[in-house]
TrEMBL record:
Domain of life: Bacteria
Broad EC category: transferase
UniProt source species: Geopseudomonas aromaticivorans
Keywords: Acyltransferase, Transferase
Molecular function GO labels: acyltransferase activity
Name listed for the protein in its UniProt record: GNAT family N-acetyltransferase
EC identifiers of the protein: 2.3.1.-
All copies of domain N-acetyltransferase, residue ranges: 1-141
Amino acid sequence: MQLREVSPSDHAALHVLWMRTPGIQLRAEDAYVPFCAYLARNPGLSLLVEEEGTIVGCLLAGHDGRRGYLQHLLVDPSCRQRGIATALIEAVLARLAAQGIAKSHVFVLDAAPQALAFWRARAGWSEREDIRVFSTVECNR
Ligand SMILES: CC(C)(COP(=O)(O)OP(=O)(O)OC[C@H]1O[C@@H](n2cnc3c(N)ncnc32)[C@H](O)[C@@H]1OP(=O)(O)O)[C@@H](O)C(=O)NCCC(=O)NCCS
Protein backbone atom coordinates (compact mmCIF):
# COMPACT_ATOMS: atom_id res chain seq x y z
CA MET A 1 0.00 0.00 0.00
CA GLN A 2 1.49 3.32 -1.12
CA LEU A 3 0.03 6.48 0.40
CA ARG A 4 0.75 9.82 -1.24
CA GLU A 5 -0.61 13.32 -1.72
CA VAL A 6 -3.23 13.90 -4.41
CA SER A 7 -2.05 16.03 -7.33
CA PRO A 8 -3.95 17.69 -10.20
CA SER A 9 -2.90 14.91 -12.58
CA ASP A 10 -4.88 12.41 -10.49
CA HIS A 11 -8.18 14.08 -11.38
CA ALA A 12 -9.18 11.88 -14.31
CA ALA A 13 -8.60 8.62 -12.43
CA LEU A 14 -10.29 9.93 -9.29
CA HIS A 15 -13.29 11.14 -11.26
CA VAL A 16 -13.78 7.64 -12.66
CA LEU A 17 -13.66 6.19 -9.14
CA TRP A 18 -16.07 8.81 -7.76
CA MET A 19 -18.52 8.26 -10.61
CA ARG A 20 -18.78 4.54 -10.02
CA THR A 21 -19.00 4.65 -6.22
CA PRO A 22 -22.46 4.81 -4.63
CA GLY A 23 -22.34 7.19 -1.68
CA ILE A 24 -20.19 9.75 -3.50
CA GLN A 25 -22.27 12.65 -4.83
CA LEU A 26 -20.49 14.69 -7.51
CA ARG A 27 -20.92 18.45 -7.80
CA ALA A 28 -19.69 21.18 -10.13
CA GLU A 29 -16.74 21.63 -7.73
CA ASP A 30 -15.49 18.16 -8.69
CA ALA A 31 -14.59 19.31 -12.20
CA TYR A 32 -10.89 19.69 -13.01
CA VAL A 33 -10.45 23.45 -12.50
CA PRO A 34 -12.15 23.73 -9.07
CA PHE A 35 -10.49 20.45 -8.02
CA CYS A 36 -7.07 21.99 -8.75
CA ALA A 37 -8.05 25.18 -6.91
CA TYR A 38 -9.11 23.10 -3.89
CA LEU A 39 -5.77 21.26 -3.83
CA ALA A 40 -3.87 24.54 -4.16
CA ARG A 41 -5.83 26.08 -1.28
CA ASN A 42 -5.28 23.02 0.94
CA PRO A 43 -1.79 21.80 0.05
CA GLY A 44 -0.74 18.35 1.24
CA LEU A 45 -4.07 17.49 2.89
CA SER A 46 -5.77 15.28 0.30
CA LEU A 47 -4.30 11.79 0.11
CA LEU A 48 -4.67 8.65 -1.96
CA VAL A 49 -3.55 5.05 -1.81
CA GLU A 50 -2.07 3.26 -4.82
CA GLU A 51 -1.44 -0.39 -5.42
CA GLU A 52 0.73 -1.38 -8.38
CA GLY A 53 0.24 2.08 -9.85
CA THR A 54 -3.57 2.03 -9.59
CA ILE A 55 -5.46 4.35 -7.27
CA VAL A 56 -7.56 2.23 -4.88
CA GLY A 57 -8.52 4.80 -2.23
CA CYS A 58 -8.78 8.50 -1.71
CA LEU A 59 -9.76 11.15 0.83
CA LEU A 60 -10.03 14.87 0.09
CA ALA A 61 -9.48 17.27 2.98
CA GLY A 62 -9.29 20.96 3.65
CA HIS A 63 -9.80 23.44 6.45
CA ASP A 64 -11.07 26.98 6.95
CA GLY A 65 -8.52 27.91 9.62
CA ARG A 66 -10.80 26.62 12.38
CA ARG A 67 -12.27 23.23 11.44
CA GLY A 68 -11.20 20.50 9.07
CA TYR A 69 -13.54 18.98 6.49
CA LEU A 70 -13.20 15.50 5.01
CA GLN A 71 -14.82 14.66 1.68
CA HIS A 72 -15.14 11.89 -0.87
CA LEU A 73 -13.67 9.08 1.21
CA LEU A 74 -13.66 5.96 -0.91
CA VAL A 75 -11.90 2.64 -1.25
CA ASP A 76 -12.26 0.45 -4.33
CA PRO A 77 -14.61 -2.49 -3.54
CA SER A 78 -11.84 -5.03 -4.24
CA CYS A 79 -9.65 -3.47 -1.53
CA ARG A 80 -12.13 -2.88 1.30
CA GLN A 81 -11.87 -4.19 4.86
CA ARG A 82 -8.07 -3.99 4.76
CA GLY A 83 -7.67 -0.77 6.74
CA ILE A 84 -7.12 1.53 3.76
CA ALA A 85 -9.84 4.01 4.79
CA THR A 86 -8.46 3.98 8.33
CA ALA A 87 -4.95 4.71 7.06
CA LEU A 88 -6.23 7.60 4.93
CA ILE A 89 -8.27 9.11 7.77
CA GLU A 90 -5.44 8.85 10.29
CA ALA A 91 -2.90 10.36 7.91
CA VAL A 92 -5.20 13.22 6.93
CA LEU A 93 -6.09 14.01 10.56
CA ALA A 94 -2.38 14.02 11.47
CA ARG A 95 -1.71 16.50 8.67
CA LEU A 96 -4.62 18.69 9.78
CA ALA A 97 -3.34 18.57 13.37
CA ALA A 98 0.11 19.61 12.17
CA GLN A 99 -1.57 22.70 10.71
CA GLY A 100 -3.28 23.46 14.05
CA ILE A 101 -6.67 21.94 13.20
CA ALA A 102 -7.80 19.72 16.07
CA LYS A 103 -11.45 19.20 15.14
CA SER A 104 -12.85 18.00 11.83
CA HIS A 105 -16.25 17.26 10.34
CA VAL A 106 -17.57 14.95 7.68
CA PHE A 107 -21.00 15.43 6.12
CA VAL A 108 -22.75 12.18 5.21
CA LEU A 109 -25.89 11.94 3.11
CA ASP A 110 -28.93 10.19 4.62
CA ALA A 111 -29.06 8.42 1.25
CA ALA A 112 -25.64 6.80 1.83
CA PRO A 113 -26.36 4.01 4.35
CA GLN A 114 -22.97 2.32 3.96
CA ALA A 115 -21.16 5.56 4.66
CA LEU A 116 -23.39 6.25 7.66
CA ALA A 117 -22.70 2.76 9.03
CA PHE A 118 -18.96 3.25 8.57
CA TRP A 119 -18.80 6.59 10.41
CA ARG A 120 -21.21 5.43 13.15
CA ALA A 121 -18.90 2.47 13.83
CA ARG A 122 -15.71 4.56 13.96
CA ALA A 123 -14.17 5.10 17.36
CA GLY A 124 -13.56 8.74 18.15
CA TRP A 125 -16.30 10.09 15.88
CA SER A 126 -19.71 11.14 17.18
CA GLU A 127 -22.86 11.76 15.19
CA ARG A 128 -24.21 15.25 15.92
CA GLU A 129 -27.85 15.40 16.94
CA ASP A 130 -27.68 19.09 17.85
CA ILE A 131 -26.89 20.60 14.45
CA ARG A 132 -28.78 21.07 11.21
CA VAL A 133 -26.82 22.19 8.17
CA PHE A 134 -28.16 25.16 6.19
CA SER A 135 -26.66 25.83 2.76
CA THR A 136 -26.86 28.58 0.19
CA VAL A 137 -25.41 29.22 -3.25
CA GLU A 138 -24.57 32.65 -4.59
CA CYS A 139 -27.18 32.63 -7.40
CA ASN A 140 -30.02 32.04 -4.89
CA ARG A 141 -29.41 35.30 -2.99
C1 LIG B 1 -16.62 3.36 3.73
C2 LIG B 1 -15.32 2.86 3.06
C3 LIG B 1 -14.47 4.04 2.68
C4 LIG B 1 -14.55 1.96 4.08
O1 LIG B 1 -13.29 1.62 3.48
P1 LIG B 1 -12.40 0.39 4.05
O2 LIG B 1 -11.02 0.56 3.54
O3 LIG B 1 -13.10 -0.89 3.76
O4 LIG B 1 -12.44 0.64 5.61
P2 LIG B 1 -11.40 0.01 6.66
O5 LIG B 1 -10.88 -1.30 6.16
O6 LIG B 1 -10.39 1.04 7.05
O7 LIG B 1 -12.36 -0.28 7.86
C5 LIG B 1 -12.17 0.26 9.15
C6 LIG B 1 -13.20 -0.30 10.09
O8 LIG B 1 -14.51 0.07 9.66
C7 LIG B 1 -15.30 -1.10 9.47
N1 LIG B 1 -16.13 -0.86 8.31
C8 LIG B 1 -15.74 -0.79 7.03
N2 LIG B 1 -16.80 -0.54 6.25
C9 LIG B 1 -17.87 -0.46 7.07
C10 LIG B 1 -19.26 -0.24 6.86
N3 LIG B 1 -19.77 -0.01 5.66
N4 LIG B 1 -20.08 -0.22 7.95
C11 LIG B 1 -19.58 -0.43 9.18
N5 LIG B 1 -18.28 -0.64 9.43
C12 LIG B 1 -17.45 -0.68 8.40
C13 LIG B 1 -14.30 -2.22 9.24
O9 LIG B 1 -14.87 -3.47 9.59
C14 LIG B 1 -13.19 -1.82 10.17
O10 LIG B 1 -13.50 -2.17 11.50
P3 LIG B 1 -12.37 -2.76 12.48
O11 LIG B 1 -11.32 -1.69 12.58
O12 LIG B 1 -13.11 -3.02 13.74
O13 LIG B 1 -11.87 -3.98 11.78
C15 LIG B 1 -15.65 2.00 1.80
O14 LIG B 1 -16.58 0.99 2.16
C16 LIG B 1 -16.22 2.79 0.65
O15 LIG B 1 -15.48 3.31 -0.18
N6 LIG B 1 -17.57 2.91 0.59
C17 LIG B 1 -18.22 3.63 -0.52
C18 LIG B 1 -17.96 5.13 -0.49
C19 LIG B 1 -18.48 5.79 0.75
O16 LIG B 1 -19.58 5.51 1.21
N7 LIG B 1 -17.65 6.69 1.28
C20 LIG B 1 -17.98 7.49 2.44
C21 LIG B 1 -18.33 8.90 1.99
S1 LIG B 1 -18.58 9.92 3.42
